[in-house]
């Protein structure tokens, strides 16, 4: 009997504490989302050319997914999820990374983890958005990039060696880049 009373009291106590904490977190999340959304809406492009439409599509993706992205002066958007350690990466550094590439609708077109093979490259040898954005972080960082096509694969798109189109021309893209490691030459 005493055990039953104790369990009932404990259950009542937990039930009365749980929702208050949950609503505070929800309110905090909602206010953060609202602030991010307001900041991103201010970045919308008034122009209706392809660059303006792609910029607006990127901003809409960020708002829909609650990404806390910032506009880079070069024209892409980025979110540093983990800054990493040591010195910032520089053009010419040889690095290996895992990444996931998706279209703005969320459809994946490439995933190095799924292949089980990190991408190895020299910063400066890839698409412009990667070359520029990677210089914002350090080894071990996690970074999200949303980029217009002009800083990705542009009017050519990306075609596999067998001739299959992996990324169509003029496609804005999203990349999640992680497990960044500097390699020795």
Count of discrete domains: 1
Instruction: Please summarize the sheet with the most strands.
Output: 7 strands, antiparallel
* pLDDT averaged residue by residue: 85
Query: What fraction of residues sit in β-strands?
Result: 25-35%
Q: What's the architecture, going by CATH?
A: Roll
Evaluate the radius of gyration.
Answer: 22 Å
Low-confidence stretches: 1-28
Coarse shape: globular
CATH topology: Chitinase A, domain 3
- Structural class call reads alpha+beta
User: Span from first to last CA?
Assistant: 72 Å
Number of strands: 9
Written as H for each helix and E for each strand, in order along the chain, the element string is: HHEEEEHEHEEEE
Per-chain topology:
Elements (H helix, E strand, L loop, with lengths): L1 H40 L8 H16 L4 E2 L5 E6 L11 E10 L4 E4 H4 L3 E4 L5 H6 L8 E6 L10 E2 L5 E3 L5 E10 L3
Antiparallel strand pairs: 1-2, 2-6, 3-4, 3-5, 3-9, 6-9, 7-8
InterPro entries: PPIase_dom_sf (IPR046357), PPIase_FKBP_dom (IPR001179)
Keywords: Isomerase, Rotamase, Signal
Family: Belongs to the FKBP-type PPIase family.
Q: Which short descriptors sum up this protein?
A:
PPIase_dom_sf, 25% strand, peptidyl-prolyl cis-trans isomerase activity, Peptidyl-prolyl cis-trans isomerase, 4 helices, disordered N terminus, 7-stranded antiparallel beta sheet, globular, Chitinase A, domain 3, 185 residues, alpha+beta
Description:
It comes from Neolewinella aquimaris. One of its GO terms (molecular function) is peptidyl-prolyl cis-trans isomerase activity. It is a single chain. The chain is α+β, with helices and mostly antiparallel strands. It has one domain: Chitinase A, domain 3 (Roll), CATH 3.10.50. Helix content is 36%, strand content 25%. The chain contains four helices and nine strands, in the order ααββββαβαββββ. The strands form two sheets. Strands 1, 2, 3, 4, 5, 6 and 9 form a seven-stranded antiparallel beta sheet that branches. A two-stranded antiparallel sheet has the order 7-8. A hairpin with a 5-residue loop joins β7 and β8. It is globular. The N terminus is likely disordered.
